[in-house]
């Protein structure tokens, strides 16, 4: 109970309160990224609940055809730590991860050589390489 006598609970997940907020306030466009603690019951009755971290990414839009918010997320999520987390979850050992990341870096430089081998004009080849190697907000693309 809180100070006014209202029953309160620890958050089980991060989506239900967010969905409630969206429904009550009529929000039609929002992107949200949140990392926070959530709690689960332990099997032992009366013990403190288990504390976990949950990460959520929510996109609310009034137009399902608009893919720009999704594209912005895809561009923003391109991060090396996310790659290592994915490789770990796929069961790839740390030693093999280093080898795989090195191969992926080589592929990136080979991609630039491949573009140059297409015999495009200097301007077109430069523009294509800049696009493929772009790192920044979508509105700068």
TrEMBL record:
- Domain of life, per the record? Eukaryota
Q: Where is the signal peptide?
A: none
Instruction: Name its GO BP terms in alphabetical order.
Output: histidyl-tRNA aminoacylation; mitochondrial translation
GO cellular component terms listed in the entry, alphabetical order: cytosol; mitochondrion
In alphabetical order, the GO MF annotations are: histidine-tRNA ligase activity; RNA binding
Q: What is this protein called?
A: Uncharacterized protein
């Amino acid at each position: 109970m809180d100070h006014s006598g209202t029953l309160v609970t620890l958050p089980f997940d991060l989506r239900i309160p967010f969905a409630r907020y969206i429904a009550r306030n009529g929000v039609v466009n929002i992107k949200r990224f949140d990392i926070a603690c959530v709690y689960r019951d332990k099997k032992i009755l009366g013990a403190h609940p288990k504390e976990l971290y949950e990460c959520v990414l929510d996109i609310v839009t009034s137009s399902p055809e608009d893919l720009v918010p999704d594209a912005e997320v895809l561009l923003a999520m391109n991060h090396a730590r996310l790659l290592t987390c994915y490789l770990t979850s796929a069961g790839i050992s740390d030693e093999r991860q280093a080898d795989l990341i090195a191969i992926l870096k080589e592929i990136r430089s080979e991609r630039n050589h491949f573009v140059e081998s297409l015999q495009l004009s200097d301007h077109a080849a430069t523009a294509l390489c800049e696009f493929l190697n772009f790192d920044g907000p979508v509105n700068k693309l």
